[in-house]
Design brief:
The chain is of the alpha+beta class and 319 residues long. It is built from eleven helices and eleven strands. A hairpin with a 4-residue loop joins strand 3 and strand 4. Helix 2 (20-27) packs across helix 3 and helix 8 (191-197) crosses helix 9. The radius of gyration is 20 Å and the shape is globular. The two termini are 37 Å apart.
Length: 319
């Protein structure tokens, strides 16, 4: 990729619904040139999916991270396991990982009973496959914008998306749900196409989107394949032995301004904090871990390193 490709990616990461005319004006390129480059980025697999993200806490959802270790899986049984996870509407994100565990799953539920039902069904159906698992509660997590990674753009207050909230809940109706379901898997869908898909009028869609953008939708972006960007997506899971508010703020601040951290999360459970790092090679990983230990060795009890090898599902609309 050249600089123009990186700028296009960063703009689409900020808002994948941005019209080509506005994108062309911002980057001072013709619409045809922009369109050609975007299609090429899609063809190369660098852009794999356009999505919309929601602050699910406003709808009364709590999110849990589940990690599964499988016991000598056959290809057929593992495919059935993956299919079961992907087809569960409450699963908003799932990945194949390498390390102490084989799969990570993020599930959004309104009650602890929904989580219990999901886990019970999974354990019963795959009792000979699931060797071990653990569950963490997601307290708060942040996804940072690509410009700090791709453009090394140092900002005083970097932009990020917050995906958890205990704020006052809001209500949506069935039409809102139809709109969000379409946007969840095609965040760049046109107003006209969205009206056709939901059997509504353009004016109604415009009105509804304006309202949802103000209250519930946090972003329109794309899912990026870090391997196609010459990065490995390392996940560092931390156990914290001392966790004062000041320590926590320092750790979050470090993640915010560290160029190659696209994601971080606070948890309650087996691990206390998660850091996702875009790493190019083993030397860069060693440097990253050394800096992490140097900065936070006093509060860290232990850590686990895993690699996300494949994103299996990203759908932040669990209804």
């Amino acid at each position: 990729m050249d600089l123009i490709d990186k700028k296009i990616l960063c703009e689409l990461d900020l808002n994948c619904r941005l019209p080509l005319s506005k994108l062309s004006k911002k980057l001072r390129l013709s619409r045809n040139a922009i369109d050609y480059r975007i299609k090429n980025l899609e063809k190369l697999g660098i852009i794999s999916q356009y999505i919309c993200s929601l602050n699910l806490g406003l709808l009364g959802y709590k999110q849990y991270m589940l990690y599964f270790k499988l016991h000598n899986p056959t290809k057929e049984l593992e495919k059935e396991f993956i299919k079961e996870i992907i087809n569960e509407k409450l699963v908003v994100h799932a990945s194949k990982i390498e390390g102490s565990f084989d799969y990570s799953v993020t599930i959004a539920v309104k009650t602890i009973n929904e989580l219990d039902v999901f886990l019970t069904r999974l354990k019963n159906e795959f009792s000979n496959l699931i060797k071990d698992y653990f569950v963490d509660i997601v307290v708060d997590y942040k996804i940072f914008k690509l410009n700090k990674l791709l453009l090394d753009k140092g900002e005083k207050f970097p932009k990020f998306e917050k995906y958890a909230s205990d704020d006052l809940q809001i209500k949506i109706d069935e039409m809102d749900k139809k709109i969000l379901r379409e946007l969840s898997q095609k965040g760049n869908i046109s107003i006209v196409e969205l009206a056709i898909k939901t059997k509504s009028s353009v004016d109604i869609i415009k009105y509804r989107l304006k309202k949802l953008n103000k209250t519930l939708i946090t972003s329109y972006r794309f899912i990026s394949n870090f391997n196609k960007l010459s990065y490995y997506n390392y996940i560092i899971l931390l156990k914290i032995r001392k966790n004062t508010k000041k320590d926590e703020e320092k750790l979050i601040s470090w993640c915010t301004f560290k160029k190659n951290i696209p994601f971080c999360a606070k948890r309650i459970g087996y691990f206390d904090f998660e850091i996702n790092a875009a790493i190019k090679d083993i030397n860069e990983l060693n440097e990253f871990i050394s800096e992490l230990k140097s900065e936070f060795g006093e509060i860290m009890d232990s850590y686990e390193i895993i690699i996300e090898s494949q994103v299996l599902k990203s759908n932040y609309v669990p209804f």
